[in-house]
Structure formats: structure tokens, C-alpha cells
């Protein structure tokens, strides 16, 4: 089993960017070192049973100390780009000024990536809000939006020369809804009125940071990363159809519509006004809907929804026999293609970059090897789904596999492995899995084919 795309696809061109992704809290560890402040995830991990096995981010993949080797690993995969996030509590002190030690850590990483000719995709917020801001209300407090803009301003000035692409937020849905509405993620609050207000403030913070990033980093690309799963109705019944629509509206449209059209979905005003943010000030929607250079999309799975009188929808399993990954997510590449085509038909989108896609598998190291055949199939099928979406007219310009290496999978702790590289958490030994080797081989073949094309072109030029 290998990763293969049709020979004539745009995805083999040099303009299509391939990478691997990680996020600060999931890999760095060293959460009290060099003046790093406490984040909401440090606090959440300390609540008994909030995270599986009471795992925490104190050591994680010890990337804070092992980053040089990790960059060599990234380089050895042959990717064009690396997507990482900055830990806000590592780089901004309590007085709002930069922490030089924290900044130096990222400067060195980014500099090393540039030297290795690897493009840098930086996300400013991958869920690790400084705890002292949460103590003031976190994303329920509008002031956090201005704090985010100030953080974006300082850090983009400090790192601008090494960054090709800035994303303001990773998955506002997860940060706001899992964190403030469903209580599954930090800070662990659970009320729709919190979730939707937090979401509005996150989108507003994105909009406030855009002009700042454009000013400080005029030649970089600036955008945001949304997560979307394709929502299906569990049956043809009108109730279930309604459930599917509500899931799609509350999870997906609620986030993309403000960005693309400057409004929250109209249907909510009629059927679920309590799922709309209570505090939207005049001008907010214009700030949120400013143009972006790219839309990052994270895709993993699809969902099926049955009618539920209290919550509108109830997540049910697919009634057909389908394949699941170790985290219980259905493998649904066809749904990926549909989702991309639907979005393309619904909105005037900027270029899309698939900023995350991957599978959790039960990976075991046997004789120094991990034979994660399911992940290879998963990657192959999803890359081909992207190819099909491009053929159908969707403008997609890049793909990042989640993740470079196994890491702290939020509420699931270290129990779920998403890496192309296996991490032994006792020894911190990294081992490239079969999927990592397949990605490596695929990229090598693509680069050879690019090289051949250049040679062919040169030959043609000579004969003209
Ligand atoms: C996404 C997150 C990422 C990782 C994957 C599996 O929602 O952005 O950090 O946990 O899921």
C-alpha cells in the first residue's frame, strides 16, 4: 500500500504545498521553563479526570529540548512546509511584553526551518490561552480580543522575517464550543450562551489581528483555520433531515458564514436564537469578514444526526458497515470531497489549504517498526478526495498531514496516536512509521517527476 495520485493532477505541481503539522501544547512540554506562564490547558489537565489517564502537557514530546532533532526529522520526510503553533503564554509576559527567552525558542526553530528550505506556517492560537486571561473571563471577555491583537502585533514583529504564512486561530469551533459549551476541553465550561459568545469573540479577535499582521508581515499569507466534518442526516425522515441541517449550521456554517458573509446563519434567529452570541457590537461583523488570503481547513470525518427534541441533533453511527479509526471516527473520504465541493458552491472562497488531516491508529512498535497500514490507506484516500475536489473546480493549494509525530491528544491524553512518526514517551525515541515512509516516498516521487518536467521543458526549449 502506498500513496499515489493520478499522474496528471495539479497536486503534483510545485505550487501545491505538502507538509506536516503540530501544535505547541501537544508537543513542547517544558511548561514552566524560561518564564512560560500557565495556560488553560495546564490548569485543565490538573482537574481530576478531565483528561484521560490524567495525562498532562508537562513533558509531552519534549520538543522544547529536542526541536533540533525534530527539524531533521521533518526534513528527512521531504516535505515543503511545516505547520506549528506559538504558545501565547510562552512569549508574552504578565505585563504584556515579549518574553525574550520564549521568543528566541521560536526564532531558532523558524530560522532552522528556513535554512532547511522548509516553508513556515504559523498558527497564533492553538487553544493555549494564558490562564491569567481566563481568570478575567477568557473568551467570554471582549477584552481578550484586544489582548490577542496586541500579542499578534508583538509576535509578528519579532518573527515576521521567518514566517511564510500566519493563521490567527486553529479551529474556533473546538476552542469555543468544546471549551465553553460542551465542557470537553479547557476551560471546561458548558452552556450554549458561553460557547457562542466565546466563538464570536474568537472570530472578532481574528478580525482585529488581520490588519496588524498585514502591516507587520506584508509579504506573508494571512488566514484562519476552521475544522469541518461533513454532517449527514441519519435517515430520510424530515426530523432527521432537520437534525442534519442543525448540526451543519451549528458546527460549520456558524463559523464560515461570519468570515465569508459577515453574518451568522439566519436560520438560527428563527429556530435557535439562544445559539446566537448575545453581545455583538456594531461593526463587529465587518471586522470579522475582512478578506483573507487563504482558508485553512482541517478535516477528519463525517457525522450522522438523528432528531433530538432538546439538542436538535443526536450523534448516531452510520447505519452501514463502515471503517473507523482508533478514536471512533468514521473513515469518509467521499464526504471530504463533498464538503469541499459544497463550500465551493456556497461561498466565494479564497484558496483552501488543508491544514490538518489524519488518522488515529493503534500503533505498536514491533522490531523497531510500526506497520500502520490503515493510516497509509487513509492518507491515500483523502489525498485522492482532494484531487477529485480540485477536478470539480475547488481551489486547493496545500495539504498538511496531522501529525508529524504522536502527541498529547487533548482530552484523550496520550492514548490516541496520530503521528507519521512514533514517539516512545518513556525514552522520547522517534521512529518513522510506515505511513511516514509512504509520505516520504510519495514526496520523493513527486519531486523526481517535477525534476523530469523541468528537464523536458528544457529539452523543448532547446529544440524550438
Ligand atoms: C484537531 C486539532 C489537533 C488534533 C487533531 C486530531 O481538532 O486541531 O490539534 O488534536 O484534531
Largest sheet: 8 strands, parallel, barrel
| Termini separation | 42 Å
Quaternary organisation of the protein chains: single chain
Structural class: alpha/beta
Helix content range of the residues, please?
40-55%
* Total number of strands: 15
Explain this structure:
- There is one protein chain.
- It is built from 15 helices and 15 strands.
- By secondary structure, it is an alpha/beta fold.
- Strands 1-2-3-4-5-7-10-13 form an eight-stranded parallel beta barrel, surrounded by five helices. Strands 6-8-9 form a three-stranded mixed beta sheet. The protein has a two-stranded antiparallel ribbon with strand order 11-12.
- The chain starts with 16 loop residues before the first strand and ends with a helix.
- The mean pLDDT is 97.
- Bound molecules: beta-D-fucopyranose.
- Beta-D-fucopyranose (FCB) binds at residues 23, 26, 170-171, 174, 227, 298, 356, 402, 409-410, 418.
Produce the secondary structure layout:
Elements: E1 17-21, H1 24-27, H2 40-45, H3 63-77, E2 81-85, H4 88-91, H5 100-115, E3 119-125, H6 131-134, H7 143-159, E4 165-170, H8 172-181, H9 192-216, E5 221-227, E6 230-233, H10 238-261, H11 266-271, H12 284-288, E7 294-298, E8 302-308, E9 312-316, H13 333-346, E10 352-356, E11 365-366, E12 369-370, H14 373-391, E13 396-402, E14 421-424, E15 429-432, H15 434-463
Helix pairs in contact: 3-5, 7-9, 8-9, 13-14, 14-15
Bound molecules: beta-D-fucopyranose (FCB).
Residues 23, 26, 170-171, 174, 227, 298, 356, 402, 409-410, 418 line the site of beta-D-fucopyranose.
Amino acid at each position: 500500500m502506498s500513496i499515489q495520485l493520478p499522474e496528471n493532477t495539479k497536486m503534483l505541481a510545485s505550487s501545491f504545498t505538502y507538509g506536516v503539522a503540530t501544535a505547541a501544547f501537544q508537543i513542547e512540554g517544558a511548561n514552566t521553563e524560561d518564564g512560560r506562564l500557565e495556560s488553560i490547558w495546564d490548569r485543565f489537565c490538573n482537574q481530576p479526570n478531565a483528561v484521560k489517564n490524567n495525562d498532562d502537557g508537562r513533558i509531552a514530546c519534549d520538543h522544547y529540548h529536542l526541536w533540533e532533532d525534530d527539524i531533521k526529522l521533518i526534513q528527512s520526510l521531504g516535505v515543503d512546509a511545516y505547520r506549528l503553533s506559538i504558545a501565547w503564554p510562552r512569549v508574552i509576559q504578565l505585563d504584556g511584553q515579549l518574553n525574550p527567552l520564549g521568543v528566541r525558542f521560536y526564532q531558532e526553530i523558524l530560522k532552522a526551518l528556513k535554512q532547511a528550505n522548509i516553508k513556515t506556517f504559523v498558527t497564533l492560537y492553538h487553544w493555549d490561552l494564558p490562564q491569567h486571561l481566563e481568570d478575567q473571563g477568557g473568551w467570554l471577555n471582549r477584552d481578550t480580543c484586544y489582548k490577542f491583537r496586541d500579542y499578534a502585533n508583538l509576535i509578528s514583529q519579532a518573527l515576521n522575517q521567518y514566517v511564510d504564512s500566519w493563521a490567527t486561530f486553529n479551529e474556533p469551533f473546538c476552542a469555543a464550543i468544546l471549551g465553553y459549551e460542551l465542557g470537553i476541553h479547557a476551560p471546561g465550561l458548558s452552556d450554549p450562551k458561553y460557547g457562542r459568545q466565546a466563538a464570536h469573540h474568537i472570530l472578532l479577535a481574528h478580525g482585529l489581528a488581520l490588519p496588524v499582521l498585514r502591516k507587520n508581515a506584508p509579504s506573508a499569507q494571512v488566514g484562519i483555520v476552521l475544522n469541518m466534518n461533513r454532517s449527514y442526516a441519519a435517515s430520510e425522515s424530515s426530523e432527521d433531515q432537520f437534525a442534519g441541517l442543525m448540526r451543519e449550521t451549528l458546527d460549520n456554517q456558524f463559523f464560515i458564514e461570519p468570515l465569508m458573509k459577515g453574518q451568522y446563519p439566519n436560520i438560527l434567529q428563527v429556530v435557535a436564537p439562544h445559539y446566537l452570541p448575545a453581545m455583538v457590537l456594531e461593526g463587529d461583523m465587518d471586522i470579522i469578514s475582512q478578506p483573507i488570503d487563504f482558508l485553512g481547513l482541517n478535516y477528519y470525518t463525517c457525522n450522522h444526526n438523528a432528531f433530538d427534541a432538546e439538542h436538535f441533533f443526536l450523534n448516531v453511527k452510520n447505519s452501514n458497515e463502515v471503517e473507523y479509526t482508533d478514536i471512533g471516527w468514521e473513515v469518509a473520504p467521499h464526504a471530504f470531497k463533498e464538503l469541499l465541493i459544497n463550500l465551493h458552491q456556497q461561498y466565494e472562497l479564497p484558496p483552501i489549504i488543508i491544514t490538518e488531516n489524519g488518522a488515529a491508529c493503534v500503533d505498536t512498535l514491533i522490531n523497531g517498526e510500526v506497520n500502520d497500514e490503515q493510516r497509509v490507506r487513509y492518507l491515500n484516500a483523502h489525498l485522492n478526495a482532494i484531487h477529485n475536489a480540485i477536478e470539480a473546480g475547488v481551489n486547493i493549494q496545500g495539504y498538511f498531514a496531522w501529525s508529524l509525530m504522536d502527541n498529547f491528544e487533548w482530552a484523550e491524553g496520550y492514548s490516541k496516536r496520530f503521528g507519521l512518526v512514533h514517539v516512545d514517551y518513556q525514552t522520547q525515541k522517534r521512529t518513522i512509521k510506515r505511513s511516514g515512509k509512504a509520505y516520504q516516498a510519495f514526496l520523493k516521487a513527486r519531486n523526481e517527476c517535477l525534476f523530469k518536467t523541468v528537464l523536458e521543458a528544457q529539452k523543448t526549449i532547446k529544440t524550438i
